[in-house]
Amino acid sequence: MSIGASPPRLDAADKATGRAQYVDDIQLPGMLHAALLTSPHAHARILDYRLDAARAIPGVKAIVVGPDLKTGRAGGMIKDESMIARDKVRYVGEPVAAVAAVDPATAARAAAAIEIDYEPLPAVLTIDESLAEGAPLLHEHFASYIQTVQGGGHDNVFFQSSMVEGDVDKAFAQCDEIVENTWETQAQHHVYLETNGCVATADASGRITLHATCQSVHHIQQRVAEELGEPMARIRVIATRVGGGFGGKHASNIHSIAAWLARAARRPVKLVLSRMQDFEVQRSRHPARIWMRTGATRDGTILARDVRITTDGGAYADESPSVLTFALMMSRGPYRIANVRAHGQTVYTNKLRAGSFRGFGNPQASFAGESQIDEIAARLDINPLELRLKNAMRPDDTAFGGHPVASCVLVECLERVRDAQRVAPSLAPRAGRKRGVGFAAVSHISGLMGTSANVQLRTDGSIALSTGCVDLGQGSDTTMVQICADALAVPIEKVSYSPQDSDSSPYNWKTAGSRSTYMTGRAVAVATVQVREKMLEHAGEMMECALADLELRPGGAIGLKGVPKSVTFKEVALRSLFQSGGPIAVSHGFVFDGPPFDPKRAVLHQLAFPNLGVYTYGAHCVEVDVDELTGAVEVRRAWCAHDVGRAINPLSCEGQIQGGFVQGMGYALTEVMQWDAQGWLTTVTLADYKVPGVLDSPVEIYPIVLEDPDPSHPVGAKGVGEPSLVGVAPAIANAICNATGARVRILPMKPERVLDALEKRT
Q1: Residue 259 above 90 pLDDT?
Q2: Confidence of residue 154 (pLDDT cuts 50, 70, 90)
């Protein structure tokens, strides 16, 4: 059996020995290097360009500026941006020109030689400034933009959405205790090990081929075609090995810039961002402000919750509508709260665009929601873990929006982390510090959008598997092969897995949303089972027996039950190819087909998703030490229980849980992108932007993998990539309060914020 084993990852040896090819490793004959010129203004009108000095530099082969672009605006759900700024710049760091030259130094020198005249405009850098009466408009022509979702469009608000279940006001009138507060979360950078980059080539006909570090070859193919004004058939995208993504590599204007330059110069062009450029040019997690009000009866039954979320989308919409929608969906928390009202809006500001990031709006909503659970528990004098257990969702409950939940082990997750912490050997707090224990419950989803897989029996009886699912380092390549191999009872060495190439790989939306194992894994499982059925039909004819009398035998054979007689996969393949039936190959694709939102249960207004689902649940327990003199917080131990449906690769599941916890710890305690009063990002290196290192992370992070198979997946699998991050910040905040009585409501919880909360505690 391949499922349930933890073999070495398919790419492990190449990565360990340095053979793995990342985008910056690519070297092509005659390759040029690209450099960007970016805006020095947060908000300004572009008046004029002077390019002669740059063009005169020996070795410069192509330059692109806004007036060179002949296509309309592009983007995700709102077409509001261009690959190079046109007419106006909207954040410091926005690309205004790009140069291709014979080497990186020449390209950089030429970019610096470009002169652009600007008319500076007033900028808005915060949510409050964006919403202020008479605030400068970032997108004066918003009404003319193509939009695939409706909502917003007044002043700087570009998307609004809401969800309501029950009678919220009536329920609050029946509550014995009501708590309300406001939380704020920060911009966080993805800090993937490998920055964004690509290599573009153009053939004699002008057809573009891009090698890119990305999360979807099909997504980038579509975006580049849109920005260059070409049919998708004229754009080919090949994924290289990816050094981490976390949502930050789903699409980037640099792909279109490199492609434009390559076509203009008729030579390959490499564009790889420096770490500083990646901070300034790409995207961040959405800063957010969450107002929340929750009410309960004296016995701890939570009756009502009211939520208002405002997210800062930065200069361009990107995936902000989807992130806001999902934040609203998660704002109820994984609880049986019958009466919930959630309203949200997203605003433009003159900062780097905010986009998808591990958790996708859930970390912001859960920081507020799970913190408030502890606050209402304190008001009611109920243990916060017991309050969670009392109100926790159970199987066959419905999620916010009306989705039925067939599989739910939240109660077991909470009990497992509680019991594990209770029986753990005592760990004394460090001298002069106070110990606190905090909990958080988590819900997330695994199913959305579309995907597909191809499975083919080769001539020698081995299997060819192809999907569009790009492995970002989480091990999805290995997982897909394990699912395929298990269904055919062959070792994984007999299954080849093709690199992602938009010319040949079947469609996949992207590697995001904790969806790969459920969505693409499901496509792989269904396609493989159909291949198996075709093989059994051939074997039945070859051995002149009924299908019911056949069985798969380990290693690649089909046998007659109860007797040694069998035929090999190779024999079946040769028969299909040269005697009867034709090649045995199956392609299976689908769009998420779970139960839809229920309009009879919930009033839904302008949601960005047509449907999503396959809910998964988890719980975190952390122990922290707090220094009340300095405000320093140290996470000492953590227990993280997560339902993965079925653990295809248990070691990978544990790695995802531990990695997510550490990234969530950075979100909770240290990581923040900061801008000065002129809109310049001041945290542009890893010396300024603090990511948890080995010495900052607890040695003891205990992953607890639970398996509650989802009935809609052939092998029961769910996703775990994002949930492991979601509950970390509120669990740490609750532990700080448990230790000191101080409640911190702004992320990150740096020492100065903890000290401020200590001074304000009552």
Answers
A1: yes
A2: confident
What single letter denotes the amino acid at residue 274?
Answer: S
> Per residue, what are the HEC states of 666-728?
HHHHCCCCCECCCCCECCCCCCCCCCCCCCCCCCEEEEEEECCCCCCCCCCCCCCCCHHHHCH
The residues near 46 (Cβ < 8 Å, ≥ 6 apart) are: 66, 85, 86, 87, 88, 89, 96, 116, 117, 118
Which domain covers residue 683, as residue numbers?
A: 288-447+596-760
- Looking up residue 253, the CATH number of its domain turns out to be 3.90.1170.50
Residues 482 and 611 in one domain: no
CATH number of 489's domain = 3.30.365.10
Question: What local confidence, expressed as pLDDT, does residue 761 receive?
Answer: 84
Q: What is the mean pLDDT of residues 431-460?
A: 97
Asked if residue 126 lies in contact with residue 349, where contact means CB atoms within 8 angstroms, the answer is yes
Out of 272, 301, 320, pick the residue that ends a domain. 272
Beta-bridged to residue 439, according to DSSP, are 621
Q: What is the pLDDT of residues 538-589, one digit of tens each?
A: 999 999 999 999 999 999 999 999 999 999 999 999 999 999 999 999 999 9
Q: Please calculate the CA angle 722-657-483 and round it to the nearest 5 degrees.
A: 80
Is residue 600 located within the same domain as residue 641?
Answer: yes
The first and second tokens of residue 732, run together, are 């740490």
Q: pLDDT class for 16, splitting at 50, 70, 90?
A: very high
Are residues 302 and 251 both part of a single domain?
A: no
From the list 659, 648, 644, the residue with the least C-alpha distance to 705 is: 644
Residue 216 and residue 311 share a domain: no
Alpha-carbon distance of 365 to 288, in angstroms, equals 9
- Measure Cα distances from 349 to 70, 88, 91, 277, 678 in Å: 26, 14, 8, 19, 13
Is 608 in the same domain as 585? Answer: no
Strand blocks (E) in 368-449: 434-448
**For 468, how many CA atoms within 13 A lie in the half-sphere containing its CB?**
25
